Amino acid sequence: MEPGGKEYNYASASKGAKVLAFNKEAKGASNILVGDKDKYLRNPCSAEEKFVVIELSEETLVDTIEIANFEHYSSNLKHFELLGSLVYPTGDWVKLGNFTAANVKHAQRFTLQVLIGVRYLRLNLLSHYGSEFYCTLSVIEIYGVDAVEQMLEDMISDQDNLFGYEVGAGEQKPPSSQLESTQDDDTYTDLYSDMEDSSVENSNAKNEVVKNKLPDPVEEVRHQQVGRMPGDSVLKILMQKVRSLDLSLSILERYLEEVNSKYGNIFKEIDKDLGEKDILLEKMRSDVKSLHSSQDLIAKDVNDLISWKSLASTQLDGLLRDNLILRLLLFLSDIFHLLLGTMLLKFVYTAYIWHCFFYKKNP
After folding, report:
1. Do the bridges between strand 166-168 and strand 79-85 make them parallel or antiparallel, or are there none, so unpaired?
2. Rounded to an integer, what distance in angstroms lies between the CA atom of residue 70 and that of residue 83?
3. Same structural domain for residues 38 and 134?
4. Do residues 21 and 123 make contact, with C-beta atoms less than 8 angstroms apart?
5. Which of 120, 225, 286, 333 is close enough to 88 for a disulfide, judged by CB 3.0 to 4.6 Å?
6. For residue 75, what are the domain limits?
7. Are residues 186 and 112 part of one domain?
8. CA 247 vs CA 195, 209, 243, 261: distances in Å
9. What secondary structure does DSSP assign to 201-234, as a single string?
10. Digit-coded pLDDT (tens) for 302-323
């Protein structure tokens, strides 16, 4: 029970439960753990295999399951099957029961006949009512008892009854005997031997985690023999948990070693690449320096070229000016010679006229 007196729902998302797997046609599978009436798990009714795998918030002795479908325009669940397991993934599910739900739109409760400690539940949706296109499920709630907590309480209670002292006639009489002490030593010897065996089984860690199954604590308590230490089933459960943690730790260590080796090689490759990049960068820097030097030389040559261009332009301007003057002089010379020739011809002609005049000739 919760502190407020409400039943503790081990399939509530707010308490750490989550959906691990579902069929590929399903939509909104995690909505069944939220408790919102407007959200739901939706499946086409024609889907062949409809299921959902839920991880409970604790290892639980499940005694009651509650389901509900509040969506009006959909088909209600009719037949369903509940399976359980302490490990996941697994191919060895324990059948908890087959149930038939009524064709109603409110919550329905189903009680399990056999109490088995589980951590993972598989809900197989087998059939439905009506002929709507979609089959929906709004909520699923799981009620029961925390398996380890219950067994510890039973162990403490049984130990109090077994090892309690009876007061009477001014004398205290311990109920424990030498046989009980021997059995107690044998029990802890078995537990220590289990711990030693677990160190040998570390080589097959992955198979051991899957194959190890906790004993049914209810059946252990029901079939306890007379004189056997009460609660040893709880100790076995705890030892199994310690063994599983040890094996998981060894798997984690090997995984970390593989990861370290893998990333070590990657870092070596990265260091090698960085070295090559550094060499290439130094070469690029050298090339840049050479380019800067070449740029300075080119700039100097350009300046020299500009100076030469200016000088050549000046000289060309002088040549053009001299050429223009020369052309002008040649033109004047031609005019002068033309004038001189004309004047000379005119003078000769005039002299000839005068000659003819003096000598009385006809010109």
Report:
1. unpaired
2. 24
3. yes
4. no
5. 120
6. 13-146
7. no
8. 11, 7, 6, 21
9. GGGGHHHHHHH-----HHHHHHTPPTTSPTTHHH
10. 988 898 888 888 888 888 888 8
